Amino acid sequence: MPTDFVSVIPCLDIRGGRVVKGVHFVDLVDAADPVEAAQAYSKGGADEIAFLDITATVEGRRTMFDVVKRVAEVVQVPLTVGGGIKSVQDVGDAIDSGASAVSISSAAVRDPEMVKAAVDQFGSDKIIVAIDADENDSLPSKREVYIDGGRTATGKDAVEFATEMAGLGVGRILPTSKKADGTKDGYDLDLTRGIADATGISVIASGGAGKLEHFYDAVAQGHARAVLAASVFHFGEFTVREVKQYLRARRLSVRM
Question: Deepest in the core among 30, 64, 224, 253, taking most CB within 10 A?
Fold first, then answer.
């Protein structure tokens, strides 16, 4: 097994300034106040926290940087921010608001040169590309990239697109399975492994965690270096520390 640490990342999906969670990217329900949730996760052993303003792009607005600032003030761990990031200026504003790294999704498809410019200006470790994907058997990896919060099909193969982004120098890839999202049936291991093996860079497994073994499988079978989850943390099914204890018992390296 790999000896470097596996990161456990609670995800705050934000809509209207509140943490929400749905299934297959729809049927969103209120889950928490983002500042309170982030503070609790920071104290509860999270290695990093993801703040994703999931409706910013479709609503044609920028990320809620005022909320990002409030969250950044109460956490003691790295904060990844995404949603509505369309320009190098947006990346800079997110970092100025307290983000340790910035996640780019729809804009990476529409304007890959912006991704390259952001990497050049801020460094690989600051830039993550998030890839929402759904099944499409006609593509080489059988996974198609979706944008606009999972609403718009692009015709792009997810693994090929991830490889393109890795070539631009991004530090990490965050693939989320639209089919698995919120189901608690497990991560899309084929998607995660396909991207990890093709790119050789750190991949964050996302979408579908429901059992403790799912987190282990994401690393052991999906070759992820980090595991992200929302529902199971927000609704108290597991704590971050319980996930870490399980992973450590399965002989993975985690920071306790």
Answer: 224
The pLDDT tens digits for 42-90 are 999 999 999 999 888 888 888 899 999 999 999 999 999 999 999 999 9
Which tokens is 177 given? 């399975």
Place of tokens 């912006």: 114
Neighbours of 2 (CB within 10 A): 11
**pTM of structure:** 0.93
Distance of CA 108 to the CA centre of its chain: 14
CA distance 247 to 242: 9
| Dihedral (CA of 61, 69, 202, 164) sign | positive
Catalytic residue among 53, 90, 93, 132: 132
Residue 13 known to be catalytic: yes
Instruction: Tell me, yes or no, if 197 is annotated catalytic.
Output: no
Confidence at residue 2, expressed as pLDDT on a 0 to 100 scale: 43
Residue ranges of domains in the chain, CATH in brackets:
7-249 (3.20.20.70)
Q: What are phi and psi of 82, to 5 degrees?
A: -150, 170
Which residue is catalytic, options 13, 90, 157, 188? 13
Alpha-carbon distance of 180 to 85, in angstroms, equals 24
129/127 Cα distance (integer angstroms): 7
